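May I ask for a sample protein chain and its fold as tokens?
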Amino acid sequence: MVEHSTSSSLAGTDAADGAVRQGSLHRTLDWRGAFWVAAGVPPLVLFSIGGIAGVAGKAAFVVWMLSMCMGFLQSFTYAEMAGMFGNKSGGASVYGATAWLRYSKLIAPLSVWCNWFAWSPVLSLGCAIAAGYILNSLFPIPLASSQPVMEWVTANIASYTAQTQAVIDYIAANPGTATDAAIQAVAQADGVAALTPAFRTWEALALKIPGLGTLHFNATFVIGVILMLIIFAIQHRGISSTAKAQRVMAIIVLVPLLLVGLVPLLNGSINSMNVTGIVPPAAAYSPLDGAWNIGGWTLFLGAMYIAAWSTYGFETAVCYTAEFKNPETDTFKAIFFSGLLCIVFFFLIPFAFQGVLGHEGMLAPEIVDGTGVGAALAGLVKGGAVITQILVILMILALFLAIMTAMAGSSRTLYQGSRDGWLPRFLGHVNEHGAPTNAMWTDLGFNVFLLALASDATGYFYVLAISNVGYLTFNFMNLNAGWIHRIDSPHLKRPWKAPTFLIGLNTCLAFVNAMFLGAGAKVWGYSGALWSGLIFASFILPVFWFRHYVQDKGHFPREAMEDLGLTDHGDLGPRRAGILPYLALIAGACVVLFSNWFFQLPE
């Protein structure tokens, strides 16, 4: 890898003639391009719309709206920090990490690492859902009431009697069922199994990993890997090519999705009973109404916890600062207009879904696991079979859109972490198109592993719950970084400066996010999700130690120091904020631990 400073001019260009430097990201993007790259965030609502309905009940659409409002307010802190570092890529976590650098060499890379392992799983989770859609289209499982199944039952029902073990087991599980009805039900289930394409049930290997889960190398895994490789190939040609592909897909996907959200409002399909009487459910995934007691608030906070993973995600619009033609003006525009786009979709789609389907409709298994969302979208506009198939195709494209956004952003986080001396050097390589290919390959390899873990519904939500521990940890640290930069780096130019009251408000929201983290991680069926996420976050320590103390002999790269306005890379500058950053960390940890102890799931 070629190491060089980027401080004397914009990263990736020569000060004299603007020629692209070898080994650097290319400045080929304006704010519109970043907007289109970030346009993959709105479809994230489809990843967990059923899961959030399951734990929030009738309050689900309120969760989406509140979470989106928080994300939009928080983005103003990120916009200010992004403008301060026009030479950096990698997003808000990189810009915020520099604020913590003076206070501990270990804290700064933690922010970058947590942001990366929160965003990166979008690849595996999105590919898992997309693979489910493709399997349903090419290798459908027949319905129990379908003609082929009924013909199978007619041909084989004579082989079932009251003494058949499966019939006995069915009656035991369903007391009061007549023998003839039990025989019919068992025969139909066997007919579905017999007529299910073998590829749907094929599994080459199931590998159990203690304390983590089971890796499934099955049909979902195979299709998911193929999809990842296709997305990798598109992004291999650089951010400009990626933005063009994103723009086309975004228009194809978001316009129909917007119409699907608007039609129920315009044609009177919204049932007011579905969006009034706002209460959490009696228990997670229960169709019964609960109450605003400790158990109910725990479920609500759990929904806020997982919604943040989607609604805050448009901050990825500032991942490309080092690739902006004019970062001083493009940075704020990119995140601001991306936020407005997300407000429209995160307000509209959950409200329309819940207003038409109701709480019980949102609990359907195919809505919870995401594979039936396309058909549900068709139901919102009362579409027939053709409309359903069109929307299923659009769902696959929507997932592609989200996955493209995730790979573009998370790979640049790895890239900049390498350039700043926090992650291994090999991640700082870019190809002739300005694409950080080594970081992209690392993302791909990590997600192949996660895809095997997420290839069934249980593993899917486990990956989501753990990755979000990292995301809320990053948000807590980054929102506090806003005021630390104000105190420690007043000399750095701020092309756009957030109102001071917003910096203060967002600092308060940092501790609200800490409460979500402590209370919410346990809601998703994994009592140890919080601790698993924190353990994974600690993996950065040996990685950073190797890079900093073995490869770099205890010094940070010159370009990283110059970005902070420091010339001596052995001196990290004065700590004007004193002990306040440490107090913020201690207070945040206390909020997480107290919330985890105080908030308990309903019995």
Summary: The radius of gyration is 25 Å. The beta strands are 203-209, 213-218.
